[in-house]
Amino acid sequence: TLERLLVLDRSPRSLNDLGLLLSDQAEFAAADTLLSEAVATAPLDQRGLYQANRALNLRRQWRDADAQALLQAALRDIDAYNGPMTGPCNLARSRAVVLLQMSRLAERQGSLVQALAHAQAAQDAAARAIELVPPYATPAERQWAAADLANAQRREVHVHIQSQQSARAEQALQRWQATAERHQLGATTRAHQ
Question: Which of 13, 82, 123, 156 could form a disulfide with 119 if both were Cys (CB 3.0 to 4.6 A apart)?
Fold first, then answer.
């Protein structure tokens, strides 16, 4: 079935989605093949989105050093990018999802202060992406940017819980819930970790 799907659509988004599905099933090598192709074929201003998912696949294999190196390179590429834009919010979204993965890695390494800093920086980038969503964007495109913000807020909740900062976790949870309601995000975004 996978091969048939790829014959019909080898877009970066499809390669990414199928790569993540394989990663969810612990088929990491096959996932990396698809995720790498998604990165290679994506418009340059969107590559950070796909690099973050490649890093997620590496993180799931406990290859944290490789994931960290990939994420740091992605941030450098985002910072240095000055080429054509396929969408005004792509770089901000890329930054948000890269920082979100960096937060997860920092937490695993026991650096909750750094995990929180990355989660908050991801929120800033996601909020910027929402501001940059053009008026002609589809509802799905608007929700992707909003989901990035909600995911970064959820990450902050998780870090505060790990730090035993219940009052701050509650405040972050309220912001997360408000974002989910304001942008009419589905139950998966509201409750999935």
Answer: 156
pLDDT tens for 13-57 read 999 999 999 999 999 999 999 999 999 999 999 999 999 999 999
**Torsion of Cα atoms, 65 then 68 then 74 then 78, to 10°:** -150
- Assess contact for 111 and 68: CB atoms under 8 A: no
Instruction: Quickly tell me which residue has 């750094």 as its tokens.
Output: 114
**What does each C-alpha distance from 120 to 27, 148, 155 come to in angstroms?**
31, 12, 9
Secondary structure in 3-state letters for 31-64: HHHHHHHHHHHCCHHHHHHHHHHHHHHHHHCCCH
Helices (H), the chain: 2-8, 12-24, 28-41, 47-60, 64-80, 90-108, 112-132, 139-162, 166-182, 187-191
pTM of the model: 0.90
84 DSSP 8-state letter: -
Q: Tens digit of pLDDT for each residue in 123-172? A: 999 999 999 998 888 888 889 999 999 999 999 999 999 999 999 999 99
Residue for token digits 């990165």? 39
CB 125 within 8 A of CB 92: yes
Report whether 51 contacts 98 (CB < 8 A): yes
Look-up: residue for tokens 């909020």? 127
